[in-house]
Write a structure and sequence with these properties.
The chain is built from four helices and no strands. The chain has about 60 residues and is mainly alpha-helical. The longest helix has 17 residues. The chain is elongated and about 50 Å long.
Length: about 60
């Protein structure tokens, strides 16, 4: 009999999707920060300004 991991893999579900649920909240938080940082690095100046405005109006940024 297959265990859950083998069954999910058999059904073409990516192992990284499974492993995501095995990590702590801190690990997931750091992973999300890395993804967001990478996305922000590729924004244009006007996109960064729009993001800054949106985040500051939602009080995510406090200058």
């Amino acid at each position: 009999m297959l265990n859950l991991r083998q069954e999910l893999t058999k059904n073409n579900i990516c192992m990284t999707d499974i492993r995501r649920f095995e990590h702590s909240d801190d690990y997931r938080r750091e992973e999300l920060i890395r993804v967001i940082e990478h996305a922000v690095e590729n924004l244009t100046l006007s996109e960064l300004e729009a993001l800054y405005y949106d985040m500051s109006t939602k009080n995510f940024i406090n200058d």
